[in-house]
């Protein structure tokens, strides 16, 4: 399989544009957050999460460039599975970073670290650094809200887990911004623990997304049954396709696996499948392009009788 199915070409172009916009806007957020970070643990955690939010966009763009390439001698089945590899890479990075940031936040609470947010001189005026941090966090909320809402429907139409993970990251980004604002205000009101508590809360969100995505990505790379975009459950499309194939060839064993955004079906134990229905017939009301390959395996022949030694 090479190239993209025609029904998803437009959505893929739109997804690429959204990811380039993500790199531009989230890079600007990272710069603003770095300049306003100070000594706040919540700001540091939010800054690192904003940097992490660039990873799904980068991996998606790399995977989208490789996926349509033609099969080669070294890769005879093409590159459709590069999307699965990109998904796993994003999940691993999220999990590791979420665990490290959670450790730092919890240790800050255990040690009773009191963050210092003092005044600074800005344009000749003395202002509390917390207001600068809150302004930066407020800015960090706006792009993710817009980008995340735009990506979700596209990721569903493409059945793209990397893009869907990116949309979830955008949601985590704006939630992080709000949690960070709460932490900074808490410190300003004298609650020293608010900063580390906000950092720990943000880290839990990162860690949860990473662990959930690692579970789904691992199943995909182990030739597991196709999974839902939102979690490790077997997708409803796969269940419906399995039922249709089993109904048409009741004597066979039907196996489904996921390869990138496609489902691969194997019907085992059928000597003569007869006239094959179209992908649209087999997929019913689901997108026909999702059925990437259908193969038939004839029943194995019984072993020959051993020669008579007598």
From TrEMBL:
- The record lists the membrane-crossing segments as 20-40, 46-64, 85-108, 128-150, 171-194
* Lipid bilayer topology: Multi-pass membrane protein
Q: One MF term in GO for this entry?
A: monoatomic cation transmembrane transporter activity
Main location, first listed in the record: membrane
Location comes to: Membrane
GO cellular component, as recorded: membrane
The alphabetical list of record keywords is: Membrane, Transmembrane, Transmembrane helix, Transport
Q: Which InterPro entries did the record assign?
A: Cation_efflux, Cation_efflux_TM, Cation_efflux_TMD_sf, CDF_Transporter
Keyword match Repressor: no
Domain of life from the UniProt record: Bacteria
Q: Which Pfam families match?
A: Cation_efflux
Q: Which family does it belong to?
A: Belongs to the cation diffusion facilitator (CDF) transporter (TC 2.A.4) family.
Tell me the protein's name. Answer: Cation diffusion facilitator family transporter
Which species is listed as the source? Croceibacterium soli
């Amino acid at each position: 399989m090479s190239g993209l199915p025609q029904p998803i070409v437009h959505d893929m172009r739109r997804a690429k544009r959204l990811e380039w916009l993500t790199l531009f806007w989230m890079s600007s957020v990272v710069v603003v957050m770095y300049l306003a970070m100070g000594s706040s643990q919540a700001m540091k955690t939010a800054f690192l999460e904003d940097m992490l939010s660039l990873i799904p966009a980068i991996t998606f763009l790399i995977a989208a460039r490789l996926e349509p390439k033609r099969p080669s001698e070294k890769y005879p089945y093409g590159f459709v599975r590069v999307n699965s590899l990109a998904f796993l890479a994003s999940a691993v990075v999220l999990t590791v970073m979420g665990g490290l940031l959670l450790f730092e936040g919890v240790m800050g609470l255990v040690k009773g670290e009191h963050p210092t947010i003092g005044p600074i001189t800005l344009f000749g005026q003395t202002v509390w650094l917390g207001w600068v941090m809150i302004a930066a966090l407020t800015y960090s909320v706006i792009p993710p809200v817009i980008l995340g809402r735009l990506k979700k429907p596209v990721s569903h139409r493409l059945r793209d887990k990397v893009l869907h993970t990116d949309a979830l990251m955008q949601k985590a980004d704006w939630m992080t911004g709000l949690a960070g604002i709460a932490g900074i205000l808490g410190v300003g009101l004298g609650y020293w623990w608010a900063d580390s508590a906000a950092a720990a809360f943000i880290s839990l969100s990162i860690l949860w997304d990473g662990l959930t995505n690692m579970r789904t990505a691992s199943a995909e790379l182990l030739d597991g049954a196709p999974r839902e975009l939102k979690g490790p459950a077997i997708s409803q499309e796969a269940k419906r396709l399995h039922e249709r194939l089993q109904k048409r060839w009741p004597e066979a064993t039907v196996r489904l696996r996921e390869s990138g955004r496609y489902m691969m079906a194997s019907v085992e134990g059928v000597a003569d499948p007869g006239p094959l229905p179209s992908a649209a017939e087999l997929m019913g009301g689901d997108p026909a392009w999702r059925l990437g390959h259908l193969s038939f395996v004839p029943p194995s022949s019984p072993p020959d009788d051993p020669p008579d030694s007598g």
